[in-house]
Automatic annotation (TrEMBL):
SMART domains associated with the record: RHOD
Domain of life, per lineage: Bacteria
Cross-referenced Pfam families: DrsE_2, Rhodanese, TusA
Cross-referenced PROSITE patterns: RHODANESE_3, UPF0033
InterPro entries hit by this protein: DsrE2-like (IPR032836), DsrEFH-like (IPR027396), Rhodanese-like_dom (IPR001763), Rhodanese-like_dom_sf (IPR036873), TusA-like (IPR001455), TusA-like_sf (IPR036868)
Name listed for the protein in its UniProt record: Peroxiredoxin family protein/rhodanese-related sulfurtransferase/TusA-related sulfurtransferase
Domain Rhodanese: start-end pairs: 17-104
Length: 366
């Protein structure tokens, strides 16, 4: 009897779905929203250790991510905690690649085929080499927002995952990808802006839920978790969602204004203020903080890898129109005054959050 381990590939996904097997997508929620395998649940690899109780221990868990690496990491975590888990190798990018020709065939006669459109020599050109996810996608969303229908833009990036991301973005927003080409050390993409299409029901169209908002409660005051929340928020906003971020308790430290006037507080209010970070740039990280050294190290690595700092992500979120709400009840408990927070922050209670959550189909707690 052979002891060789059975290897699973992403090409097995459809068979597994038909057999009612359990699939787990370990990408970030905004990636999952952009497209995922039918019936797959979503728990980010970064949260999986905190959400093990949500996963079935009596079933084999078939894990996948975008290209395979995060899936392998998730499988190791699951196995360490007693789960039966396997990684679907190559990931979702290979899975979607199987359907490229089918999607082109399914295009209706009303659609203008990208194959028949010439690339405009006067297209807007954007250099985004070195930008890490979600930077290139945010740049595309920004530039396309300024173009008129029919105009084209070209973007050059060095993040190879952008190839898949931009295809999903274009499908979601109704624009066309005219060129999506990997070269030796970069990716070149040309897009054409299309006029918005009216959504109708009938003749081959299915009625769909119109709720398309995203809400998240930011409870953590850790820099890495705050950064993840803003990556998801800006990614969701660039996909056309209305995004509300509700900051409560320790999460209020994320939106403190470093230029806020100094307060003369007394008693417990003073003690709270002394113990808490003064602004987003001074937040600790959730692991290996090492009395603040870990935070400085990760900020250095982020700068070297051209990943936006948390303060820059907050500014971008504000420019994109992400709604940031501070919980007034938490502010009172944590002894934080209105003028200690960033000027672009709104104030409200749980009713504000629940009102926006009612109109959303993506709700997170970070």
């Amino acid at each position: 009897m052979s002891n060789a381990k059975i290897k699973y590939h992403i090409n097995d996904a459809d068979r597994l779905v038909e057999a009612n097997e359990y699939l787990l997508d370990v990408r970030e929620p905004f990636e999952y929203e952009m497209g995922h395998i039918a019936e797959a649940d979503n728990v980010s690899v970064n949260e999986i250790e905190d959400r093990l109780d949500e996963l079935p221990k009596d079933r084999k868990i078939h894990v996948y991510c975008q290209r395979g690496k995060r899936g392998a990491n998730a499988v190791e975590i699951l196995k360490t905690n007693g789960f039966d888990a396997v990684n679907l190798e190559e990931g979702y990018s290979a899975y979607t690649g199987k359907y490229d020709s089918a999607q082109e065939t399914a295009a209706t006669a009303e659609d203008v085929s990208a194959d028949n459109v010439e690339i405009d020599p006067n297209r807007v050109k954007v250099e985004a080499s070195g930008l890490q996810c979600p930077g290139p996608l945010l740049k595309v969303n920004e530039v396309m927002g300024e173009l008129e229908p029919g105009q084209q833009m070209e973007i050059t990036v060095t993040d190879f995952g952008f190839c898949t991301d931009v295809e999903a973005w274009a499908r979601k927003t109704g624009h066309s990808v005219l060129k999506n080409e990997k070269m030796e050390n970069k990716v070149e993409v040309v897009l054409r802006k299309n006029a918005p299409q009216a959504k109708t029901a009938g003749e081959g169209h299915q009625m769909v839920e119109t709720k398309d908002g995203a809400t998240m409660v930011v409870f953590s005051g850790d820099m890495d978790k705050a950064l993840a929340s803003f990556i998801i928020a800006t990614g969701a906003k660039s996909m056309g969602k209305d995004v509300t971020m509700f900051f409560t308790f320790w999460g209020l430290n994320v939106i403190k204004d470093p230029k806020a006037p100094k307060k003369n507080k007394t008693g417990l209010d003073k003690a709270f203020s002394m113990m808490m970070p003064k602004s987003a740039s001074r937040l600790p990280i959730s692991n290996m903080n090492m009395f603040g050294l870990g935070s400085k190290m990760i900020q250095y690595v982020m700068k070297k890898k051209k990943v936006d700092a948390l303060t820059e992500m907050i500014e971008k979120a504000d420019k994109l129109g992400v709604k940031m709400v501070a919980c007034t009840m938490s502010m009172d408990i944590m002894a934080i005054d209105e003028d200690e927070l960033l000027p672009n922050v709104n104030f409200g209670g749980v009713g504000t959050y629940l009102g926006d959550a009612e109109n959303g189909n993506l709700n997170l707690f970070i």
